[in-house]
Amino acid sequence: MSELITEDLVDLQLSAGTRAAAARALAERMAAAGRVTDLDGFLADVAAREEQMPTGLEGGIGIPHCRSAHVTEPTLAFGRSEAGIDFGAADGPADLIFLIAAPAGGDADHLSILSTLARRLMDDSFTGALRTAENPAGAAALIRGDQPPPDAATAGDAEPSDTEPSDTEPAAAGPGPSGPAAPGATPDTDADKDATRTDTEAAPDARPFRIVAVTSCPTGIAHTYMAAESLEQAGREAGVELVTETQGSAGFRRLDPAVIDAADAVIFAHDVEVREKARFAGKPTVDTGVKAAINRPAQLIAEARAKARRGETTALAGPGTAANDATGEHQGEGFGSQLRRYLMSGVSYMVPFVAAGGLLIALSFALGGYDITEAKPVTEHFVWTEVASWAALLLQIGSAAFGFLVPVLAGYIAYGMADRPGLVPGFVGGAIAVTVEAGFLGGLVAGLLAGTVVRGIQRARIPAALRGIMPVLVIPLLGSAAVGFLMFVVVGEPVAALQRGLTGWLGDLSGSNAIILGAVLGLMMCFDLGGPLNKVAYTFAVGGLADANSGSLKVMAAVMAAGMVPPLAMALATALRSRLFTTAERENGKAAWVLGASFITEGAIPFAAADPLRVIPSVMAGGALTGALSMAFGATLRAPHGGVFVVPLISGPLLYLVAIAAGTALATGLVVLLKEIRDRTSGAPEHTAPGGTAQRVKAATG
After folding, report:
1. pTM of whole model > 0.70?
2. Residue in 70, 217, 223, 526 annotated catalytic
3. What's the longest Cα–Cα distance across the chain?
């Protein structure tokens, strides 16, 4: 940490009495060193971060920190207070205060070093040495890592590294090395101790319990990495293999999917949304704030073990669930996989706007009829007692929500490619797509252009003095100008013409063309049950809602109906011919009723995974029939999700239910028939007890 802190940034006799005064005293040292350009502006950013969550930690530590446009380079100031200063920690005031300042957008290398400091704060020998440091130069050298803490040197430990520890290295199984444990690193209750003994001593030859954890905080600088270090230390104490993914300001390295698959439980310690949360679906999960992982990690580990023993798991993700963010790295991905990930990032953020706007518009039509589109703006005419006024209000709110569809789509496609710097150019490009009437396709193009432009700017070699203003000024300015030029002058009109052609084609769909399209979409929805092909069909349908006409509304209805068929068919099959299924499958069949009714196609995955040669063709046939019938009946839908719960908002709801029932019946009949033939030809026994899965899979593949 040679450039982060110098002796001029150390105050071993900090006399401030409040956290605000302490922050000002240390910030003044940063300003005197030329590292803060606007003292009051920077302190306002520190105060805003403090309002989100107190930055005091147990053990007498305060870590006020923020990212700010008024910081020229990553900087750390340290103060030691004899009286102590209240930073909101449960165990009392802090005597060690670290003011961490990072430029807006941050520099990845320096933020990694700041994260290393955050991890070292969990080491009692490090904080103890700071409490006994005799001069500012010695304290600065200790923080930089120029000299190890006395206890560490005595023990012969290696000097701390200036680079961020790997997020993908598991805490070693078994007792950790000698040294202080993280706060709460031993079980807090007898029950926790019993759980530890149960998991680690009952079967000494079995593999250790495995946990994957994700930590994140609003700024992604300190708490994120301290929580990770605390969990890892507690994992070593408990004999648990624990791997952390820190989603910090410097980006994040995604855990290997194989590591996630092998995990027995998941811990989310976060104060901002976990990115790509769907990767961890279907596992026992403890979801808590980031401070809980710092203060009581052993309790979280014990809770994760208890949930695993009880079999408590999270639900599977549904259609349209999204997408990966671009902050981490996706090594080995092909262009097609990357493109799909970028597009699904945009679609996933667009879907809530489609859902809210579509349902509001559908409700307005239910109340006021289709003539409600001619109503005056509610700002000019609104009568509290008139149903028509309320219908007009719902229509105009829904239309306002729909106005965000294309900009949000473009903005978050760019975000998927280039993270937060891509948002402004992406939104600007999406707004221009609306202006030139390029619609949904224009949003796709604008988002891809914005992400590409921003990534190009990010690769340019930038002087250190300009790095602080890159994410707040340079990238938004240059990115928006470049994307605006391309959308207005180069690609806007051709894409608009293509959009008009697609919209006209969907509007003219009728007869056999519509039925064939419905069948194809049904096949796609049921082929991989939530996989890439399913997502392509779903995205096509949702995209049509951005510029809705009768054809696009029919497509949305057909896609949702077909997506409901696989889990409903499996549920019905397990009820009618239970002897053909294992005990576990019969239990899954009960849940599949709800999943299918809610339009969660993935509810059929356990059945398809065990017997793909019989299940997948059967549900594809049922989905194709349902999609074709839905189009033939002319059912329309403005909501992108909801299953049977939005049927009242569908035109022709009874015929729509008939289409779903017909497809479900066909898929059920086929899967039962194929399984009966299998049992007769292979002589496989009836599956009336657990353990038949292996036999059935062997029969399915033999």
Report:
1. no
2. 217
3. 87
